[in-house]
Every structure is written in C-alpha cells, then in structure tokens.
Write a structure and sequence with these properties.
Blueprint: H1 12-17, H2 19-35, H3 46-56, H4 62-70, H5 79-92, H6 96-122, H7 125-137, H8 152-173, H9 176-192, H10 200-213, H11 219-250
Amino acid sequence: MPATGPSTCRFDPFCEKHHWLLVLVILALLHQITWGATIAKVGFFTDEWELFGILHFVPHDIISEITRVLQHERFAVRPLLACILGALYYVFGDQPYGYHLLNQIVEILGAFFLYLAINRLCKFKLLAFSAAVLFLLYPNHDISHYHVTAMSAQMALTLFNLCFYLFVCGVQRKAQSYLWFSAICYFLGLSIYELCMPLFFLLAMAAVYILTFEEKSSIKAILRRVFALCLPYIVVLALFVAYRMLILPLIGSKPVYRPGFQWNHFC
C-alpha cells in the first residue's frame, strides 16, 4: 500500500502569505462581537455637550470650528486632537454614530499594528496575536465606548503602534525612510495625546534586542547605534516640550493639566 504524505489544504499557501489579512479580519470580528452592540446604546457624555455647545455658535465651516477648538484651554496643548475634533464636528455634528465608527476603526488598527510590530520583532505569530487581542479587548485602555470624543488616548496609542512597527522594520532593513516615517508617527501621536511620551524607551529596547540577537554587535557599537536611531525621537520630544513650555505661553494659552489622582486620595 503506497505511503501517503501529510495532508495539505489548498488554502495553506494563502494563509501563509496573507496571514496579516486573516489577523485583521479576526480582530475586526472580535471587536464587533465584544463592543459592536454598544453602538446603538451609547450617546454623548457631559464633556461632549460642553464642546458641542461652543461649536454650535460658530460659523459652520471646518476652519472656524477647528480654530474654535484650538482656542479652548483643554485642547490648545494637543493641536492635532483639536483639528480632529473640529473636523469631526463639521462632518458628524452631534450625531454619535460617526464618532463610534471612527473609534472602532482606530481601535482595530491599533491592535493590528501591534500584531505587526511584535511579529516582525519576535517572529512569533501566536505571541503577537495574543498581545493584539489583549490590547483590543482589555477595557481599561480606552473609554471611547462610553465617552466617544475621548478618542485621544486610543489614537495616540494606534499611532505609536504604527511608529513601533515602522521602527522595527527600519532597524532590521537598515532603511532610513522607515525610521523617519516612524518618527513622524511619534510626533503626531504626541500632538494628539502625551500618553505615548514614555513609550519612547520601548523603541530603544527594541533596537537593543535587534542589534544584540540579530546582528550580534559589540556593546559599544550597540549603544552608539541605539543613540543614533533614537536621536530623531529625542528631537521630537524636545520640540514637544518647547511647544508646551515656551510657545503656548507666548500666544497666551497656558497648559492645563487635570490630574487623574492626587496623593491625598490615598491618605
């Protein structure tokens, strides 16, 4: 009786070549199963109506609405977020479904970019997929399901995950263009929300990992190369701090910080 080899599925080559597409579809389905039912039940929070009340009385054109949001003390410190909120109000007004749709797309893409970054870094699809699912479904990373204009944290994290993926690609391929696009994503993320500011050290750790285990460079060469790779991000951080501390006071808009907790909460 002739021996038979291992059975193969005609979809195996497609799955191997386009696994990223399958991951994206699965993440989108998981997101819809978990959060999709809330879309029809969640409207706006008090902070939304405060902002919408201000925008309601300005001329209904995109420039006027973006300019008005930029003048608000809460959003002047995050200029790109102000532009996004002004543009969204121009398009969707006070109807919540457009905001929900955008938030869902941003959340799915954030998890997908994290999958791409970890898979590229570790060559371990299961680990990358598990991290992406945890990022997508862990409820504390995002409150936009209940507070739809509080999208700043998720947008910043999504841009950082894209920044992370491009950084890993740039270091592995020695491609400067990837690194510059990565730095641009980092800058855009900071302009939306400063949450990703300390995550800069994750890029340095990834560079050390790649140079140590993939290129097997000496310690001195690794440190020199890591500093060179991280220099654009250091410049971005310096520009961000200069905008907050120097430029905003000059134009009469001081940064406003509202701490989430204080020490007297625990005393």
